[in-house]
Every structure is written in structure tokens, then in C-alpha cells.
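Hi L.,

You mentioned the student needs an example of a multi-chain input paired with its predicted structure. This one should do, with 1009 residues in total across all chains.
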Amino acid sequence: MSRKTGLVFFPAFDWAITPTHPEREERLLYTRDQLFEEGVMDLPEIVEYKPRNADYKDIARVHFCVPDISAQITEAHLIAAGGTLVLADAFMNKEIDNGFALVRPPGHHSMRVVHGNRGFCNIHNEAIMIEYLRKNYGLQKIAIVDTDVHHGDGTQDIYYHDPDVLFISFHQDGRTLYPGSGFCNELGGPTAYGTTINIPLLPNTTDEGIHYVLDQLVLPLLEEFQPDIIINSAGQDNHYTDPLANMRFTARGYARLNEKLKPDLAVLEGGYAIESALPYVNMGIILAMAGIDYSWVREPDYRPENFRETPEHMAYLKGLVEHLQDAWHNREEMAAAGFPWDEEFFESSRMIYYDTDNIREQQQEKIRLCKRCPGYQVIRSRGLYPSGRIRTIQAIVLHRRACPSCQEEARELYRERIADPEGLDIIYLQDKPQDRYHQFTVSGESELQY
Amino acid sequence: MLIGLDVGGTYTDAVLLEGREIIKKVKTPTDYEKLLNSLLAALDPLLEEAKGRAIERIVLSTTLITNLIATRRIEPVALVLIPGPGLNPDTFDYQVPLTISLSGAIDYRGREIEPLNEQELKECMEKIKDSGVRRIAVVGKFSQRNNKHEQKVATYLQEHIPDLEVIMGHQVTGRLNYPRRVYTTLLTLATQRRFREFYSEVQELLHRRGIKAPLYILKADGGTLPLEQSAAKPVETIFSGPAASTMGVLALTPRKQTSVVIDIGGTTTDLALILTGTPLLASKGARIDDQLTHVRAFATKSVAVGGDSCLRVRNGSLEILPYREGPAYCLGGPQPTPTDAMRVAGLTDIGDKDKAIDAMKILGKDLGLSVNRTAELTLKMMVRRITAEINSMFLAWEQEPAYRIWELRQKRKVRPQNLVGIGAASPALIPLLSKEMDCRPVIPQHAEVANAIGAALARVNLRLTFHFDTERNFYFIEENGVQERIPEPLHSLQDAEKFALGRLKEEGKKLGIITDDEPEIIYSELFNMVRGWRTTGRLIDVCVQFPTGVLVEWEEGGN
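Structure written out for the whole complex:
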């Protein structure tokens, strides 16, 4: 049987954040024109699928939506997430060899707790797809490679304590771009140390530099990790014409990246050069995934000589790759030495800013340090809304491989908190071992279960 | 009075209608070699019946184009392509004697991103000169958004090769999909001459009969256009047979219902869907010779099973083969067929009953089943095959991609209300099929001339799809190749709609289309173009048309 690439194309021509926002109806219009004019959907290697709506339960496997799921999403979000699930099913049923969900709205800045929209994202399409794959098809080890120019901080947050997920993000250095995170020392929580790899790149890094990182670091790491599936968070804003970033990646560079990376499933993330980049980059990625010649894909002003790397950049990249290779190889020793393993919990806190909705969130996290399993985390989050309103929630994340005693502890903690809410508005339990998701709203004394 | 003529593969049907009344119907065998004679044989009895009373229009549906293409009796056409960046141009093979690719490129907004190369153009012209091919299709990617390159190439070639016939892609269709545009354009040019020849003979013939009524041609999408308009794009009249039968069923069944049209013939069963009164169109356009085109056509499916299909037993199980070896056993044929099973089951009285029993005996022996059980099994298999295909058609429709939230919301699970049978074996099988699918069986009155009725009653369809780019101050129309400056400022979607409706009426008048129907808006959509947080222009798509369907319906339906 010939090779098949599945596509879900859901440009949501009737959805926008606001009329002039970069994430608006027009975003995939020219991509549509290019793909349709090329006749891509008619190619024997391409199978086009219709998206469907994701269920609330699919979302609850990943997120704690405040005050509830319906408040955080529109129908477009359900369809974008559902589109990835259609491809996940087609991939697992072997109808396709790989698949690309060209959907909007995007999702990779959405974190576990969702008070609102940040980085144009409300819910995390890839994470929803991954948890669906794990639940329905028993996949264990997942690798996510984020090729968006912005740090995939939502993905990092969701999988920071999951040793079964290797998350690799390369992006423009957080000191020069939203969301301001994704540095080399963010390597994962105590129970999953080293399975988060951040590769901050200097502005103006080109095809050559990005492929150096890919060849020297990303591909060898994947080879060693041996994931059951490789997911690409396929942002396209590393492109040299992107108005919101400063990199120098080309359509052909993106195509070649996908040819080497061979993602099983790719999901569109950012990319706001809707005319000068997206039509060409999407075309390149699709052709590369389908094993079709992409050497004719080029931007109108593309000149190969413009995308060579400077010696300074190459020296920086070399040092960066070596540093991260060391971190990866010594991750177990570093985890053992870096956390108080004789204690029950490790605590941390941080501020999270929601740029789109202007919400500030204060988060404290307690990570259960279990020597037998990846344990659980207790998140206490205070959302400060622009209206002056404050909502405080507590959320318990129970890992799918948690040992019986951690499972018991986490469920007991949820029950205790309901009995004594301590000024909380909502209490959540994400019980992945049982695939049950609870949300208790204190004021109404009502529990939602998915 | 209206006349409908359908020159089909086996029979030519004709009807004379007055309002809802069928004044006369005729069915005669089709003679492929002498299509005009078949036409006359069907037409003359109608004219006699009409006795000189005024005939308003004649609508003709023929297999002419289908046959020309199937038997490769089309004219050789060479391709001059301007593919630009994107897919490797060698991806598609259009099977033409000569293909020349030129550099030069237009982008999705219609902006020139690479000029033509004069030297290449000269070499191209010389190659064509030498090749001896004198029909050229010039097609560029995104030429519908800017035909400058196509125009320049066409003009240049025509200036240097005097007897050259040239057609340009943007003249044929402005819909997105360049490979389909290339193929549709070349088929258009390849069939134009023979189409004109045939129809000038038809007109001559009508003229001699003293008929002044305008001649209309049925298209694959169930609409009709005056002859002159069809002659420009003959390929749109392909597959008019299935279109005629679907339009016939539309006329003969209750309005606004969901029906499956089932035409059970000798070796095939042809299926089409009517969803709440609207025939379903193939989402990707008609597939001709295994290549997709921009020809709007009904979504039809041909299942290789019919009344004369050959039956046999292999490894102890019954098989329905996809071909016939002659008529049914009960009609003196060599092999058992489903018709024999129907005869045994008492569903028809066609043919010799004893012979039918013998046919079932032959099969039954190898199956270890009685005559009656063998007939039952045969029919059950046939019913299962057809219902499986019907279900897969509905499923395929449900799974057609959608790009807007409202489209997805709208597509619910739909199941048919009626199974409507036409074709010889329908009366026997439709009840069985309907029982299996839990639908109402309908065998319309006059079903045997449904195609001619469909042709007679099909409305004119004129549709115009406008794309406005207010930033570039430019618009084009998909259907007729118009590319112009926007003559009046468009401040809103309503302005664009008003403009489009006005243009449609004008176009209708120009084509001599007389109708009392108000044109309707099929869809309209507006995108703000935002550059640097500021709206710099609008892209507006508006599609308008005169109402489609049939002129009159038999509201009470069949029996």
C-alpha cells in the first residue's frame, strides 16, 4: 500500500479573537488558496478528514478550567481539538502513516490551569490528543518537538512532571520574545528531570543553525528516548518574514525538518506571516510528510545564500548543544542531587501572566516526591482578573502511573479539601489512573465529573 | 409545451409536456453511429402530437461528450503551462502529445511574483510550430486571479502561428485547483469542434421540421443552458444521463424530501442522492478518465450489479460477477442471473418460469440449497451490496470536509425517506431494498421516461461566483473568466451582494434567459485584511444563482 498522510484542515473562517488580532479569520485564507490551487487534497498520498468536536472529558484529562470548561472555550476550540483526535484515530487504526492537523485556534501556550487566554491559546490541542491516545490506545512514551518560535510553555507546564513525555522546544531566546521562558535550566520537575529540553536560539538563527541543532541534539535524543509516538507542535513563526518574531527559517527549512524528524502527528501552532510564510511553509510541511518532492516550494523572495549561519551563531549553538547533551546524560545524577528526596514534598511558586486576557495568576505547587512512581502534584492557583475579581482554586494532578499509595493519598487530599475548602473557590482532582475528572465548586457545593 | 430528449446508451427517451401533463412519451433504441436518426425517431411522434402548437423549449441530453472522451475521439491538444512554485509540475501527467512549462508566477492574491521569460516563450512557439499540434491550452497557476501571463502567452502564440486555436485556463474556470483546471481546459478545447458539428446538425434538423423553440442542453449538474453557452464549455454536458434521471426523479417525487435514486439496469445499478430536495453534487467535481475536473456533477455511484449480472458458485459460495454474458437464463441466456431469481421469487413475470427454476437449480446444486432458497440468497446478496453502497454514499457525504463552524454544525446524520426506483428491474427490487433500509419504496409513474422528463423540466442554471479584493481594487468571476477593476466602492458585504445580484441579472439577459425567478445568494463571506493591526482592505466572496431544480413537480409523488 502506498504511503498516506492524513490532513485535517480547519481554518475556522468564522472565528477570531478580535477583528484585527493576528489570530483571526484571515489567518489560513491564503494557505487555503495555495493548498487548494495546488490540488494537494487530490493527491493520492493525501487523505483529508473532517474534524469533529472534542468532548469535555477530553479537555478535563488535561486542564483545570476556571470556573469551568464551557467558560474557557468556544465551539471552534472543540473542533480544533477534535480535529487532532480524528487524526489520532486514523493514525492508530493505520489508515494513515502520519498526519497534520492544520487547525486553529492554537494551543501550546495553554497550561494545566486555565484562567483565560494566553498567547492566543485557551486549551492545548496536542496535550488533549496525547492524553486521548494514552487513554484509548495505551501509548506510554511520547515525544513532543515544538518548532514554534515561541517557547511551548503550556506543553512544558503540562508535562513538566511526567517522565514518560520528552518535550523538546527550540525557540527564539526568551529574553527577546514572548513568553520569556524556555531556558536551558528548565529541565523538568524532580520526578521527570531531563525530559524537558529547551533550546533557546539567538535572534536571526537560520536554516543552517536550526538543522545543526536538529541533527546534533534533537534527533539523537529522540533516538535514545525511543518514544511510542513523535508529535510536532508545528508553529511556523520561525519564518524569516514573521511579524511577531525575528528568526530566519524558510519554507524549505521547515520541510526538510519534517522530513528528518518524521513526526507521526503534527499540529499547527503559531505563524502569523499569513501571506509571506504560511502558504509556503504549510505546503512544504505537507509535501515532506507525504514523501513528495518539495524542492519546488519556495517563497517569492527566497535566495539560498541569505540563510547561511554566522560563525558567532555557530559557536553559540555548539556550546548550547554540548551543554544540553551533558544535562541529558547526567539527568539522573542531577535529579538525585538537586531535590530534597528525604522529604515528602518539594515546593515551588511562580507568577503566570495571561497576555491576551490580562490576567495574573499566582501559583504554588507541591510535588509529591515518591521513590516508586511519578506521584502527584497539588497546585494552588489564584487568578487576578482585570475586573478585580479573584478566584482561588486547588488542583490535584495524579500521574497515570501513580503507585497505589500515591493514588490513595491524592484522592484523600481531594476529599479533605472538599470538607474544609480553606477559602478556595474550586477544587479539582485529575484522576488519570481511573480516568475520572472531578471538579467541586465550593459556593454551589456541587461536583462536576467527567 | 416543453420537449425533453435523452439520448442514452441503450434507449432514447422523449416526452412532450404541458404543465404537469405528459402529452406523449416515446422510447426507442439508440443507434450510436447515427445519433441524429435516434433523435428523430423519438422527436417526430412528439411533433405530430403537438400538431403545430407552440413549443417553448427543447432540452437535449446526450452521451455525445461522454462517448467522445471514452473512445478517445477527441482532438489532440498541447499544453503550455505556467506552474510557478509549489508542487513539482511533473506530479501530474495529463496524457497529451506535448507539454511545455514556462517560468513566471502569479501568487494567490494575483500578484506577479516572477515575470515570463521572453526567450522561453520563443522556444515554446517554435516547438509548437514543429509539433504540428494546432490546439493549445495555456494554463497558469492562479491565472483566475490575474490572467496577464495567460493572455500574453496566448497572444504571442497566436501572432506567430496563424492557424492556432488557443484556450486559456481562466476562461474555463476560476475555481481553485490548478491541476483540475488544466485538465478541464484541455478537455474543453478537445471537444469543442465535434460538439459544434453535432449541434449544428441538430439545429439544421429542427429548422427543417419548422421548430423555432430554443434548444437547451442538459449539464452534469442537472441545469440547462442555451446551446450557444454550452458550446463554449461542452465538457460540462458530460454525464448528463445520470443528471437527467435524477432531475426526473426530482420532478416525480414529493418536494423537499431525502431520496435515493436507484437505476437498476442490466449490469450496473446507478445511485444518486437527493438531500431535502436538492441533488447532491460531487464534492471534488466530475472524475473523467480517472482525473478530477472542475465540472460540476451530481455525486453518483455505479455498482457493478444488475438484472443480467452473471451468477456463479465458487468454493461453495454464491458470487455476483461484475459483467453479463447475455440475457437472463429465463430469456434464453447462457447463465443464471438475478433476473432468474426475481422470476422464481415471483417478483416479476419476465421470461420463462421453468427456465428460471432451472437456472436456480444449477446454482442450488453446488450450494446445497433448494430452488427457492437459492433465489432468496441471490436477492439477499444483491440487496446487501446495494444498501452497503447507499450507506457508504451517505457516510462519504457526512465526512466531506468542512472549513467553517456553521458548516460542521449543520451536517447532521441524514437517512433517506424514499428509495426511488427507475430502470427495468426496479419494480422487483425496490420493495426489498426499502424493507432492508426502512424507507418508503417509490416507483414513480412514467419512470421509464424519467430521463426525458428530467431534461424537459430542468431549470436553467446560471451561477456566478465573485471574488473581490478591495485592496487591489480588483474582482473576478469564477464561471466566465471576467477580471476587472471594481467599478463602485464596496463598503460592506451587502454592497457586494447587491452588485453580484445585479450582474447576474444582466448576464441572464445577455444569455437570453427569461425567468421570473429572483436570483438567490448561495453564500457570501467577508475577510478583513489586516496589516500592522489596521484593516487595509477586504476580501469578499459572493456566489449568486438563479434557483435550480425542476420547473414543475408532481407533488403527490409516485405510487
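You could point out the following to them. Chain B has a mean pLDDT of 92. Chain B is about 35% helix and 25% strand.

Best wishes,
N.
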